[in-house]
Amino acid sequence: MGRGLGAILSAESKATVNSATDEGADKFVGNIVEVSLEDIYPNPTQPRTYFDEKALNELAQSIENLGVIQPITLRKDGEKFEIISGERRYRATKIAGLTTIPAYIRLVNDQELLEMALVENIQREDLDAIEIALTYHRLLEEIGLTQENLSQRIGKDRSTITNSIRLLRLNPDIQNAIRSGEISAGHGRAIISLESEEDQQVLFELIIKEKLNVRQAEQAAAALKNPKSPAAKKAKVELSNNYKKAQKTIADILDVKVEIKSSGNGKKGKIVLDFKNEEELEYILSHIK
């Protein structure tokens, strides 16, 4: 025969097995079979759109040396097979020069295919917060899941899902900043807590300019919402790392206690210098002149 059992099942089943009730489906579905790469095509609705070329080449080298350790998952589509999960392994296997790949075969409809691809996508650890939010949104809108159903299927709290999806209300520039890692999802949640798009933009620019951490961003958001609130007053006291560095630099130069007070909106502030007597004041002035 010259072919492995997987190759035999793949060849014989391409035309005859299209549903779970077809003869031979029990031997074909649920088993690992070797499928020709020529018979496989990617899922056009695959949530993942970016594949790092360097990482792909590294995986291809591993596959060339050790083979494909984890089978991919495919959907039977006539005589072809559509990828449900594992497109990265499929691409790397082609780069490695192999002609077949081990796979699990599933018989699912279009909706089930999309749901499986989306849920599998969520489980990956390298997704950014906006990709996750978009995936949640598609599962709710295109698949028709409720947030309760989605929560049960992926093991996440409903509040986590809700807070994630809210990030999609941010303007594209802020979303792109989250995707690139310039700011975090926590920063994004602080920004989206502001109702005014103008205030959101002010806070976004402040976070970038002053390199605010998430806690500082939350306090700045409170200050923008209610300048007289206790949280706003605390936000003015909480300095960015740049301000703290400047405060220490001035104190070292003048050898006096220095306090920088920020308005919380990044537009203005003041520097307070402590002196004990006229001599110390003269000393400070001599260093400023």
TrEMBL record:
This is Chromosome partitioning protein, ParB family. Gene3D superfamilies: 1.10.10.2830, 3.90.1530.30. CDD domains: SPO0J_N (cd16393). Residues 33-122 form the ParB-like N-terminal domain. InterPro entries: Chromosome_partition/occlusion (IPR050336), HTH_ParB/Spo0J (IPR041468), ParB/RepB/Spo0J (IPR004437), ParB/Sulfiredoxin_sf (IPR036086), ParB_dimer_C (IPR057240), ParB_N (IPR003115). The lineage of its organism: Bacteria, Pseudomonadati, Bacteroidota, Flavobacteriia, Flavobacteriales. It comes from Chryseobacterium rhizoplanae. One of its GO terms (cellular component) is chromosome. Pfam families: HTH_ParB, ParB_C, ParB_N. Keywords: Chromosome partition, DNA-binding. One of its GO terms (biological process) is chromosome segregation. GO terms for molecular function: DNA binding. Signal peptide: none annotated. Belongs to the ParB family. It comes from the Bacteria.
